[in-house]
Design goal:
With 440 residues, this protein is mainly alpha-helical. The protein has 19 helices and no strands. The termini are far apart. The model is unreliable at 3-83 and 87-109 (pLDDT under 50).
Length: 440
């Protein structure tokens, strides 16, 4: 990015109509505000620091240069907060987590992983156990929302809801969230997306048949229909017809009140990507098509976790400006992050998916089928694909941080890296859902 471009971003908006631009927190009206759910509030923890780890991507001298340049620019960037949630003063992180985290650990070669161990050879960054007080507070809040506010699931699903461990998941993925209210933004959306996936696509009533129609109607809970007064009531009533649409609508209402218009639009765009990926996978299921490996990876670039890490700034109580989010280098970093973290899901859910009827597509299975190798060889090659993507994400995050050391951009990169680390931690430790194959 050229110096004039950076200077223009730092100056803020200019042009017709911007002289009177005022950014005010959006305060929910009594009619739209959700009920108050009492749970213990827990202060934001201090950002974790790496203990004894080497820098994984760039030399120490280069990292120090980023810190110095970021500190210089930090004084020039106004602290613009447009969230309706109170945000305590937090230090601006100076580097992406990927640049300062300890090197990945793995089970020693030849050793069989124990329950709860990471996948042997998988490139990852271990994290500290999430703050148990935050986990408990968030778990209480998200369950109250799911049961009392939107009636998400029947009693017989409660064990699986608890086993998903949403509170532990979101606390691990968003270490810089200022409050439980901020974590609830991510938790509601995660639960809602999981409900749509389970009830529309997967094992709780899902089917590829008619999926496009269901997803389209659910998407209008995120991106509302603008129509005539005659037809508006019918659409409005449809939003409460099933649990996925109720959860999408409620989670999005909360998100819009806490985010800026740009952040909300970004999220809608990412969810449209996700739904397009769902439809591609469904089309293959209807025709029993096993895609080429590159085709599968293309589908997974859309059907992946991208909507989760890209809201890291909203959950953190700040905003990555749209102009910086749209940079081609940033888009590549976000895509690499989404792709890598989704393959983590393919790898940890592998044995769970083997029990599904028919051929359940995941990267190890597609490699095995298309490249004519054993299931074990396909799995181990998928581990290497993940590792390549993770290293590319880290290298290009570092390059972007060096090229454009704007504090919000650097903090966003750190947030995305933290999300990847937390996502791996959750998959590794969620033994209620996942176990590893006997390949070692």
């Amino acid at each position: 990015m050229s110096p004039p471009t950076i200077e223009r971003i730092l100056r803020g908006p200019t042009g017709l109509g911007t002289a009177g631009l005022q950014l005010r927190p959006q305060v929910p009206t009594p009619e739209t505000a959700g009920p108050t759910v009492r749970a213990p509030e827990v202060p934001a923890p201090e950002a974790p620091t790496a203990a004894g780890g080497e820098n994984t991507v760039v030399e120490t001298v280069a990292l120090e240069a980023v810190v110095a340049r970021t500190a210089t620019l930090g004084a020039a960037v106004p602290d613009v907060q447009r969230s309706s949630l109170p945000v305590p003063s937090l230090p601006v992180p100076s580097l992406p987590a990927a640049l300062t985290a300890p090197r990945a650990t793995a089970v020693s070669s030849g050793g069989k992983p124990k329950i709860g161990d990471p996948i042997p050879g998988l490139y990852h960054h271990p994290i500290a156990e999430p703050d148990p007080a935050r986990v408990e507070a968030l778990s209480l809040r998200i369950k109250a929302w799911a049961i009392d506010e939107i009636e998400l699931y029947p009693p017989e699903w409660e064990k699986d809801f608890d086993g998903f461990s949403t509170g532990r998941y979101m606390v691990a993925c968003h270490p810089d969230a200022p409050s439980i209210d901020h974590l609830m933004i991510a938790a509601r959306l995660m639960v809602a997306e999981n409900a749509v996936d389970d009830c529309y696509c997967e094992d709780l009533g899902g089917s590829p048949i008619g999926l496009g129609s269901r997803l389209l109607l659910a998407h209008t809970a995120l991106d509302p229909l603008h129509t005539t007064p005659e037809y508006h009531p019918g659409w409005e009533a449809s939003l409460s017809e099933d649990a996925p649409r109720r959860s999408y609508r409620s989670a999005m209402d909360y998100f819009v009140r806490a985010s800026t218009p740009s952040q909300a639009d970004r999220f809608r765009h990412d969810m449209a990507r996700l739904h397009m990926g769902y439809l591609a996978e469904a089309a293959w299921a209807e025709t029993d098509h096993v895609p080429e490996v590159w085709e599968y990876l293309a589908m997974r670039q859309f059907n992946n976790f991208r909507p989760c890490p890209t809201i890291t700034d909203t959950v953190g109580g700040y905003e990555l400006p749209a102009e910086l989010h749209a940079l081609p280098a940033m888009q590549r970093v976000i895509a690499l992050a989404g792709n890598a973290t989704t393959i983590v899901n393919d790898l940890y859910s592998y044995t769970k998916e083997l029990s599904s009827p028919g051929l359940h597509l995941n990267l190890p299975v597609v490699i095995s089928e298309r490249e004519g190798v054993s299931r074990k060889e396909g799995y181990l090659k998928a581990v290497e694909v993940h590792n390549e993507l993770m290293r590319a994400f880290e290298a290009e995050s570092a390059a972007l941080a060096l090229a454009c050391p704007v504090p919000t951009l650097v903090r966003f990169l750190r947030g995305v890296a933290a999300w990847l680390d937390g996502n791996h931690y959750w998959h590794q430790t969620n033994t209620h859902r996942y176990s590893l194959p006997d390949f070692w």
